[in-house]
Amino acid sequence: MKVVALLSQKGGAGKSTLARQLAVVAGEAGPAFLVDRDPQATISKWWARRTEQEPAPRWPELMDIGEASLADAVARLRPRAGVLFIDTAPAVGAREAEVAQAADLVIVPIRPSPDDLEAVGDTLRIVRRLGRPAVLVVNAAKNLSRSIGAQAALARYPFAVCPTALADRAAYLDAALEGRGVGELKGAGARDARAEVQAVWKWIGEQMEAEQ
């Protein structure tokens, strides 16, 4: 099993959105799992709405690790096939460092605003200190110019930047409210969002293969 952690020192970066959307896309090809380590329980609430659908989609599956340490839980899950996505709190403390250490890859989402671009340095210094492979994904870009500008600004860090950005689309909010992936919605906006998520996941898969 591959383990992917979503990490950000700053709140509102889009960790939960990216985690659940990537998990839905990954679940189209094989088993996909989620662990919710965010005290706001955003993933857990989304998954509860998802299970109310008829019939409820099989993947992704929300894993309840109980009182076990994350390291122990990941060690138990490693022999299984699939991908595990771990959402974290909007901070990088001891619990988040534990998540990063257990991951094969850390994804750091960044909104293309001056505040977010300035704040991401704190997250990346911590990730670099932990010695974990990480990639950067621009999220909630208002337009192509914003995403290109943000990607250019992030190029100064020693981490790969995803060439596909997620746009600021209503489809992501609609999918969150319905417990779905954007690809499970109808409409042009949903189709465009699905294409974005698929492209991001394909690129992330290539990064994980390169790390092997």
Describe the structure.
This protein has 212 residues and is of the alpha/beta class. It has helices at 15-27, 42-51, 70-77, 94-102, 114-130, 144-154, 170-178, 188-211, and strands spanning 2-6, 32-36, 61-62, 83-87, 105-110, 134-138, 160-161. It has a seven-stranded parallel β-sheet with strand order 3-2-4-1-5-6-7, with helices on both faces. Helix 1 (15-27) crosses helix 8 (188-211). The longest helix has 24 residues, at 188-211. The chain is globular and about 45 Å long. 42% of the residues are buried.
Task: Give the key terms.
212 residues, alpha/beta, Rossmann fold, seven-stranded parallel beta sheet, 8 helices, globular
TL;DR of this structure?
The chain is α/β, with parallel strands linked by helices and 212 residues long. It contains eight helices and seven strands, in the order βαβαβαβαβαβαβαα.
* Beta-strand proportion: 5-15%
CATH superfamily: P-loop containing nucleotide triphosphate hydrolases
Question: What is the correct CATH architecture?
Answer: 3-Layer(aba) Sandwich
Query: What is the number of strand segments?
Result: 7
* Rg estimate, integer Å: 16 Å
* Class by SSE composition: alpha/beta
Largest sheet: number of strands, sense, barrel closure: 7 strands, parallel
Terminal-residue CA separation: 13 Å
Mean pLDDT reading: 92
CATH fold category name:
Rossmann fold
Total individual domains = 1
Q: Indicate the overall shape.
A: globular
Residues in helix, %: 40-55%
- Poorly predicted runs are none
Order of helices and strands: EHEHEHEHEHEHEHH
What topology, given as strand order, has the largest sheet? 3-2-4-1-5-6-7
Number of helices: 8
Main CATH class: Alpha Beta
